[in-house]
Amino acid sequence: MNQGILALVTSTGCAAASALQSLTDAMHIPHLFIQRNGDGGPRTACQLNPSPDGESYTLAARPPVRINDVLLTLVSEFHWQKFIIFYESDYDIRGLQTFMDQASRLGLDVSLQRVDRNVSRVFTDLFNTMRTEELNRYRDTLRRAVLLMSPRGAQVFIHQAVETNLASKDSHWVYANEEVSDADIMELIHSSLGRMTIIRQVFPLWRDTNVRCMRNNHRISSLLCDPQEGYLQSLEVSNLYLYDSVLMLANAFYRKLEDRKWHSMASLNCMRKSTKPWNGGWSMLDTIQKGRISGLTGLMDFRAEGSNSHVQFEILGTSYSDAFVKDVKRLASWDSTRGLNGSLKENRIESGMQGVTLKIVTLLEEPFVMVAENILGQPKRYKGFSIDVLDALAKILGFKYDIYQVGDGKYGSALPNGSWNGVIGELIGKRADLAVSAITITPERESVVDFSKRYLDYSVGILTRKSEDKINIFSLLAPFDLAVWACIAAAIPVVGIMIFLLRRIQAVRCHSNTGHPPPSTSTSLQSAIWIVYGAFVQQGSDSILGSVALRIVMGSWWLFTLIVCSSYTANLAAYLTVSRMDNAIRSFQDLSKQVDLAYGTVRDSAVYEYFRAKGTNPLEQDSTFAELWKVVNKNNGFDNSVSSPSEGIKKLFAGDTVIYVSEKKPALQCKA
């Protein structure tokens, strides 16, 4: 504080948080608090002290404990009337007060039992203190149990219960912990004897790397944002919220600078009684509370009574029939906005869909969905790759379907009012049960509908019209520059004149020495130039080179013509090859730099939204996507972009100077 402070971000336990809250409230310092739970057990809410004047400067970046709400939902779904809750000695039982009150109002019979660190002693004491009939009643109580323990403690507890024959095959236990790894889940499932249900906190996964690594104009290291790296899963939940808290502050500082409402940093001295609180603290706190980011933990804001309310849980488990093969599957999810998403009832889909007629929405796009037959007055018949997949599913599961085309001809994108159009909108509006189309899987779409596994992948492609081959009679001159051809043309008469002069000199010397003329050879200038040209085109000549000087000149000329002809042949082959492979646009950078061709994509598609996100990001260092978005979105996308892929292809074949950018990852999708 002496050096200057704008906000405080801490990751501590509850005791330290209370002391820091008193300090920040007194000095008016915005305080982002992340509750840390180092023992691995379930987290309980921190009981922070109320502020004296009602103005709390502490914001809870980690959402409040909602395990109790999830447990109450599960108990209602499972129709449990009587069960027992086991908790470790380190667990703060006050965290169960709200749950017990709600369970009591619902008429549920709930028991609590603390489990000491020495788990084996717990079961030994049970056998020493209970009679046989009491043990049988206790074994019956253990058929429905909730475990609020660390992963290691739960594994030991389950192992001891199985060893002592207190756990039965018809038992159903629920393990609840915000932080539990995949390895710990497998250990728990394999240790249990009956059915096991796991509740843990999860965060939204972003499949598209470019989108996943961007959070509110902030680029995240691929080590953190890419699930394939494996580093993200190894981090504690508190560290993820710590990262997002700093990101939230950066976002608030950016908006302060943008609005020109920046405050000087607080320079405070806690040891002086005359120290006054920071006068800019409330304004900075208000800016932070009005912000919203999307980080490693998903959405984060402080609009719900000074705490981040966005939290999502995953419910995993096994069924009675699956317990023997220890198969773990995702049963449902729970979030703070919609509650339970999915059903926990046990039913096999193979038998549950026999004879059911599903209403299926689709969008035409070759070769995935096409009209096979269109007879007037009868329903359309469809064919294609996606239809083949649908027919195979219908045959396996025994359902029937009625298929129709989406009215607006779009796959689906979020509208400003929060609703969706296209295929996604049909599913959300429950006008269709299933969608079959060549649709791209995006994080935004996955947040509202469920997708199948991808059965086909396409990367982003740039589709251009093939250039027409132009015939040029002067293309044979292309391997050499004009200056080179001029030098060659000048060299032929120059060397011819030299040959002419040397032959005349040879003739004069021969006549003066012998008194006889030289052998019959033409000594005219035209014949000399013809000899030089014949040598250049490698046709030879019938000349007689008597003198050494003539042989030196002609030998040098032959060497020169050999080099020139070899170079010409090599350059001509390279020129003809490159001209066939010439493509000026190979990347998005090439596309943004050229101005001759217009380009676009399908409006409201995944690629369109990708360009929007990247092109409107002020922190994007590369201006490539800003230029791309400017052209793609010209006149709100109506100038260069198209309404459907088929329209884009028609534009290409029609000769319009438009480049079409597309991407597809086909999958089946349905509303959960």
TrEMBL record:
GO terms for biological process: regulation of synapse assembly. Residues 357-671 form the Ionotropic glutamate receptor C-terminal domain. Gene3D superfamilies: 1.10.287.70, 3.40.50.2300, Periplasmic binding protein-like II. InterPro entries: ANF_lig-bd_rcpt (IPR001828), Glu/Gly-bd (IPR019594), Iono_Glu_rcpt_met (IPR001508), Ionotropic_Glu_rcpt (IPR015683), Iontro_rcpt_C (IPR001320), Peripla_BP_I (IPR028082). L-glutamate binds at residues 440, 445. GO terms for molecular function: ligand-gated monoatomic ion channel activity; signaling receptor activity. It is found in: Cell membrane; Postsynaptic cell membrane. Residues 367-429 form the Ionotropic glutamate receptor L-glutamate and glycine-binding domain. The record marks 585 as: Crucial to convey clamshell closure to channel opening. The record marks 612 as: Interaction with the cone snail toxin Con-ikot-ikot. The chain crosses the membrane at residues 482-502, 557-578. GO terms for cellular component: postsynaptic density membrane. Keywords: Cell membrane, Glycoprotein, Ion channel, Ion transport, Ligand-gated ion channel, Membrane, Postsynaptic cell membrane, Receptor, Synapse, Transmembrane, Transmembrane helix, Transport. It is a multi-pass membrane protein. Belongs to the glutamate-gated ion channel (TC 1.A.10.1) family. GRID2 subfamily. Receptor for glutamate that functions as a ligand-gated ion channel in the central nervous system and plays an important role in excitatory synaptic transmission. L-glutamate acts as an excitatory neurotransmitter at many synapses in the central nervous system. This is Glutamate receptor. It comes from Cyprinodon variegatus.
